[in-house]
Amino acid sequence: MALASGVRFPARALLRPWSLLRDTTLGRSEPAASGGGGGGDGARLFGSQRVLVEPDAASGVAVMKFRNPPVNSLSLELLTELVISLEKLENDKTVRGVILTSDCPRVFSAGLDLTEMCGRNPAHYAEYWKAVQELWLRTYLSSLVLVAAINGACPAGGCVIALACDCRVLADNPKYHIGLNETLLGITAPFWLKDTYVNTIGHRASEQALQLGSLFPPSEALQVGLVDQVVPEDQVLSTALSEMARWLAVPDHARQLTKNMMRKATADRLLRQRDADIQNFVSFICRDSIQKSLQVYFEKLQQRKG
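User: That's the sequence. What structure does it adopt?
Assistant: Structure tokens below.
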């Protein structure tokens, strides 16, 4: 359970999950933005309130930007819009790869939205956790090449998105930590996220990092294998594009089959236990002790904001 942590964000009224579709503009054509790293002549922007996608048919690469200020907390709306946008790109035969990055300064994503898990009813918690599962499954099993251009802090849920990508490029800024710090909030990562961590950095490193709730600065994240490159902040997107070119040099069918072979067992474990995982989350989050703990943490965030 990857919560937004250590970064300020406001409480706010939230829409029901699919009501956001009333104001989405998926498929909307616009002039290409200049200097976006994925724009250029013939590019066709599309997106919604919280996600902007800049496809480039010439290169076969799209840049997907999260824009849920101030810290890209993973609200139900943002989770849903990310899944919709990725699905649209997967159905676009001109797109072979996607770079995921942030449109919010100094933060990739701060994690799950605490307001989705405090003071709600069990049905809402179930709906929210299913959306979290769906985003992970969609990204982890995507047939596209996904490169995370991590241009800000990446704790908790931000790390979940990054881990699901094929390659991770992190800005060399000591304030931009990455990792899963659930235990520091009195909760635990779900088994499928634990499995992803083990797949990425190994069993012993995962056991230590998950128990301690470790957040790694760039140099340590590179050393442990949590990211693939650490580069100057102004080179994150260009490096992600270079990495994308390396991955796209491999024939799609061979790469996709290999990716599926490597990841299928991890994803299948969640698919077999998806309902049980949702029920476990709901039972856990509904406990009075957990609700009180989350409320205390939320109040601390609000005090920092003040």
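Confidence is low (pLDDT under 50) at residues 5-42.
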